[in-house]
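Hi F.,

I've been meaning to write this up properly since the lab meeting, where we talked about keeping a consistent format for the predictions we share between groups. The idea is simple: the sequence comes first, exactly as it goes in, then the structure tokens exactly as they come out, then a line or two of notes. No screenshots and no reformatting. I'm using this chain as the first example so we have something concrete to point to.
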Amino acid sequence: MHDIKAIRENPEAFDKAMARRGLPNRSAEILALDSERRSHVVNQQQFETERNAISKQIGEAKRAGRDTSAIEARGIELRDSIAAAKAFAEGAEATLHALLAELPNLLDAETPEGRDEANNVAQNHVGAIKDFAFTPKQHFEIGEALGLMDFSNAAKLAGSRFTVLKGALARLERALGQFMLDLHTAAHGYSETVVPLLVNESTLFGTGQLPKFAEDLFKTTDGRWLIPTAEVPLTNLVAGDIVPAAGLPIRLTALTPCFRSEAGSAGRDVRGMLRQHQFTKVEMVSITHPNESDAEHERMTRCAETVLEKLELPYRRMLLCAGDTGFSAAKTYDLEVWLPGQGTYREISSCSNTRAFQARRMNARYREADGKTLGFVHTLNGSGVAVGRALIAVLENYQNADGSVTVPEVLRPYMGGLEVITPV
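Output, unedited:
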């Protein structure tokens, strides 16, 4: 959500910021609604002041034995005028709120210009890409040949974009999630949290999924929604709260299933596990003081990078351009892991600083040590990392010529000491 005071003070800057997102100027429309709302509020206040004065006049007239019918008639007129002004003000407020809720966050100055992912900027490449002595296969070819990845039965149970994992691959997915949780809690200072997988509409509004992206979500018949990411419930834990500044930052992590309709991905990544309706992800969320959010963004991204480095997976960090940065984000780093079966890098983590954008929607604030100064917290979120995509990356980077898959050394304690996964 945007600060209406900032738009009033510099509408041209706001329009330029929206133009970076490829959106038309909206400040004139916003300020017209704001002016209308404020005008009705002023009218309401004036009517209320006159009504209070008339109430005193009626009392004085009655005590003096004078006729009060004309004054009382004016009082009735004012009552109706107050109700009408209030209704008009609330209507303008609702329209203004809906308009502001549809507009994305302002981009950070460091976010590069560009229309789509082709304009993202690679910042570094980490890890050596393995030179296979054979043609590397894609993850679904490896998994099916192992007899441990089943797409046909998944389709029978639930339709397309679902997967059944069995045996060692099911354990490998569990191992990845547990390894990430242990790393983030023990080494990175995040607090493990178990959150609801179903949330209400206001919770999704708070992090920016609603109202704009309703088609990307699954809604239940009782008005709740399946979470698309644990960012949603984790961030909303401070919704409506005033947090002592001394208690910041708050760092939370969760391992959850996530659910997405993939409404806009028809025909993309149809085969395999890359784009699923249900997938598992470890999420990191930080609630910070505004002065610390930029440093926290770098820290969070390094936490995600550490996961890939310990798994010895080649990756690169990308700074997303204006056209590829998400709705709620001011600045985003994507980590892309190398998939030899595809011969390309694919996103495995996205770490974003939303600044005060989500906090304004949630009314999440902090109080300084003076006990008086209030401000909106900054919220950050990042995948730490997507477990399904990590499984894909392990299968493709650790595949062997005989169809087996070597278990990364860091995961072997979670696999009961298993070193190689072989066909069943």
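Notes:
The chain has a mean pLDDT of 96.
The longest strand covers residues 278-288.

If this format works for you, I'll send the rest the same way.

G.
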